[in-house]
Amino acid sequence: MIVGIGTDLCDIRRIQATLTRKGERFAEKVLGPEELLVYRQRTARVPARGLRYLATRFAAKEAFSKAIGLGMRWPMTWRHVQVLNAASGRPEISLRGDLLPWFDARGWKAHVTVTDEVDHALAFVVVETLAP
């Protein structure tokens, strides 16, 4: 059974403006440790790819916070949610910190998809219960 749906549309130009103002601190605030490594690798190769990666992760975390009904309040934090790619390339939600036991106690599973095009990044999250 679906317990929550969240979506977020992010203007990549807004993410770029924030990076220009705050520098790498912004990426460090939004991204978890594994995401930060990918972001830095992509940025080093092609800065636009790093920017798009950051924007899709930002959108996914916003969408996830809506799907679980908390918004950005404890135990939901930017760094407690990571969107990592499976070997197949499919994005997957990975939780940590206090959010992991909070989420697991409810018997939920999250599904995420992300995309970007020119100036926008979009994420869609569905949270379902595993119990019938």
UniProtKB/TrEMBL annotation:
Catalytic activity: apo-[ACP] + CoA = holo-[ACP] + adenosine 3',5'-bisphosphate + H(+)
Compartments, as annotated in UniProt: Cytoplasm
Any single biological process term in GO: fatty acid biosynthetic process
EC identifiers of the protein: 2.7.8.7
Keyword Membrane: no
GO CC annotation: cytoplasm
Cofactor(s) the protein requires to work: Mg(2+)
Keyword terms: Cytoplasm, Fatty acid biosynthesis, Fatty acid metabolism, Lipid biosynthesis, Lipid metabolism, Magnesium, Metal-binding, Transferase
Amino-acid positions noted as binding Mg(2+) in the UniProt annotation, renumbered to this chain: D8, E62
Keyword match Magnesium: yes
Transmembrane segments: none
InterPro entries to which the protein is assigned, alphabetical: 4-PPantetheinyl_Trfase_dom (IPR008278), 4-PPantetheinyl_Trfase_dom_sf (IPR037143), ACPS (IPR002582), Ppantetheine-prot_Trfase_dom (IPR004568)
GO molecular function, one term: magnesium ion binding
Segments forming domain 4'-phosphopantetheinyl transferase: 4-106
Role this protein plays: Transfers the 4'-phosphopantetheine moiety from coenzyme A to a Ser of acyl-carrier-protein.
Family: Belongs to the P-Pant transferase superfamily. AcpS family.
HAMAP family: AcpS (MF_00101)
UniProt protein name: Holo-[acyl-carrier-protein] synthase
